[in-house]
Amino acid sequence: MNMNYFSFYNKAKELLIDSLASLWFKGQAQEQEYIKRILTKDEPLFAEPVFQSIFPWEESADSFEEHSSKLRLLTPSFVNALSSEGIDKDLRFPLDRHPYKHQTESWRTMLSSRPQTIVVTTGTGSGKTECFMIPVLQDLAKTNEKNCVQAIFLYPLNALMKSQQKRIHAWCKALPEKVTYAIYNGETDKENRSDRYTTSHYPQLVTRPQIRKTPPQILFTNPTMLNYMLVRAEDREILEKSKGKLKWILLDEAHTYTGSSAAELSLQIRRVLDAFGVTIDQVNFAVTSATIGDESDPKTTIKLKTFVSQLTGKPFEDIKIISGKRIIPELNKGIAEDQLSKINKKFSIELSYSDIEKLRKKLNSSPVLKAKEIGRMLDKGIGKNVDASLEIIDALGEKVKGLNKGGGLGALLPTRAHLFVRSISGVYVCTNPDCQRHKGYRLSIGSLTTYQNMNCPVCKSKMLELATCSSCGSPIIVGETNTTKGFRMHTNVIDLDKSLFYEQKEDLIDLEDMGNIEDVEQNEADGFSRFFFAIPKKACLRKNANRTYHIFNHQNGKIELVPEDNRSNKCFTSLKSEESIPVIYQSLRHSGDNHVLCPHCGNNLSEFKNLDYLRISATQIGRTLATLLLDNAEPIDSNDADVVYEGRKYITFTDSRQGSARSAMGLNQDVERSWIRASIFHKLADMRLNDVKPGGLTPDEEAEYNAYLSIREHLPTLLFENLNNLKKKRMAYQ
User: Fold this and answer.
1) Contacts 24+ apart (CB under 8 A), 275-283
2) Contact assessment for residue 67 and residue 74, using Cβ atoms and an 8 Å cutoff
3) How much is the pTM?
4) What is the mean pLDDT of each run of 10 residues along the chain (734 residues)?
């Protein structure tokens, strides 16, 4: 199943915009429709999708088995071990598989009599892991020297280590010599465990005492943990037993190290060599990296080799860049033309076989192509519209049996999509009634924008930030004013993730010393004080409150009080009239303690938590789209009752541990809420069924009943009640 780009792109936009509108403006219909219009037409959240080629990587002329029997790169015992049926099918390296050409080149370079440092720059799904892992395992299995660290695999994220664990464990265990390894990070067990426990995980070493007593041949770790190991007294045993034994260092995702982090890693590598008692000439490096710049430009190669040389300390001439190449498979012309005729009929266009060949070559030779760029190459009319372009890309990406001459399923244009969504740091309002922006449909408080500007992009008046009352959800303008300098936008330091998605009490997250944030009315050092204005639709009924009326004078940039005789609703601006009348805003304070109150409902705004700033971060966007992403993930073909949701999976990354923890917790909470809501809904539905006279099962209910019966032995307890209800209804009808 291919992802339908058109459907996903439009559903994602709709879901995200609807979510923001309902969360930002709870129960405010006019405000919701206005912000939807802005995010749909004027300030879109999604950039135009871009596409990459996913044609297969160029394969070696020799099979995996021939890398032993013919090329003599690998030993027969090693090749047979990695291809044995004792290894899970997904992790096995079959004898008849042809490794990619860049994998063969990597193995040859690393296993030569004079190995060089390799830098693998191939793309996603190109088997970069095998490029370095196979030659290292071959070398360690060949020498078979235990109880000392001979290879360090350095990863910037623990998640990347975890992703390799199944494969490295299967391969290390399959080898006759069984190469030992350990994942040494903050999660590694600190306590002694029984021999029975540690033996069950072998050849992985799973506890810190075990790692110190018998150091693994391969050590997976991160820069922080490696630094601790170099200075911690309890880890001295690892270094002592590994003196003079270190031979390999892998640096994964080296392009993520920039500036000071790259300098720190460079110095750390030199400290590692010193601590392990080896010289730079005794250690070989393998580096994986994204390509920096244009691969065809010689300057790119020089730049990358210089970077790696400075990072590792290896001479420039001893570094080899290894890049892969995607090969465009030859099409079965007859089947391709049949598929093209269907597409031509559907879209009323006239694509030829040569047009598709040109497009395939263009896509494969370009880093990326935009959706409309692809559309224009096919038809000028289609290329004017993103949706139309996505629809034809979907059609060209449909898998067809026998399309490729090599056999199997193939597509006229196999692609990988990249979708970019912008985060929003705030919603801002122009209060100038003479401004032409959105005139005719803007809100009474002014025109809104999600782009941060000090001045309105149309009339150049001062912009202010919009927030909402956490109690009633109504909009409130927030700013600062000074009697001599006038009003200005208030700069606050709210974390993007501290918004409607993340409530401190609910998510149990301590933000940066939130308790130290005092009254929101606090005076700033330069004499500005905060104000909170609104235009209530009806008068606030709160007692002991003093109301004040204001207008923004955009000529002198100051806020003025409105005289008593001009405070009627007639003074509100008629946005359709030719002559603008100053818009009157209200503020509300408690008559006793003078605290700021919400002009709409009278809620106390003097506490920081009582205002919701309208923002959304990348993490929040991920949480909102999580269900949709999962729905569009490819299912697996499995009859296993333990497989959840047809085995669909997707992976999400953040750039910090705290962000990952926060995101994971938020996703778990979302799932729990959805489960509780669904349980309540189904319980109420079942209760209603009790009042309905039996009439047999519907086709859908019959299918559900049979599905429950097929997995009755593994059926979760929660679903037994559903099964019994269906059974009763079925029997009552019979």
Assistant:
1) 275/230, 275/239, 276/149, 276/239, 276/242, 276/243, 276/244, 276/245, 276/246, 277/243, 277/244, 278/244, 278/245, 278/246, 278/247, 280/312, 280/313, 280/314, 282/246, 282/247, 283/246, 283/247, 283/248, 283/249
2) yes
3) 0.78
4) 88 96 92 95 94 94 96 95 91 94 96 92 87 95 94 85 87 93 92 92 95 96 92 95 96 85 93 96 91 72 92 94 92 95 95 95 94 96 95 95 87 95 94 91 93 92 93 92 90 52 37 37 66 91 91 91 65 44 89 91 79 88 89 81 80 72 81 88 83 71 86 78 82 66
Element (DSSP H or E) covering residue 264: helix 259-275
Say how far apart CA 102 and CA 458 lie, in whole Å.
Answer: 54
CA angle 675, 676, 679 (to 5 degrees): 85
Backbone angles phi, psi at 469, to 5 degrees: -70, 130
Phi–psi pair at 607, nearest 5 degrees: -100, 135
Give 129's contacts (C-beta < 8 A, 6+ positions apart).
164, 167
**CA–CA dist 369, 344 (Å, integer):** 22
Helices (H), 614-656: 618-632
Contact present, 596 and 605 (Cβ < 8 Å): yes
DSSP per-residue codes, 215-252: --SEEEE-HHHHHHHHH-GGGHHHHHHTTTT--EEEET
CA-angle at 729, arms to 728 and 734, nearest 5°: 95
Both tokens of 592, joined, read: 């006793």
Cα separation of 489 and 454, whole Å?
A: 7
Look at residue 696 and give its three-state secondary structure. coil
- β-partners of residue 317 are none
Tell me how far apart the alpha carbons of residues 250 and 128 are, in angstroms, rounded to a whole number.
Answer: 12
Instruction: Give the three-class secondary structure for 321.
Output: strand
How far is 359 from 363, CA to CA, in rounded Å?
6
Report the DSSP pairing between strands 151-154 and 218-221.
Answer: parallel
Amino acid at 544: N
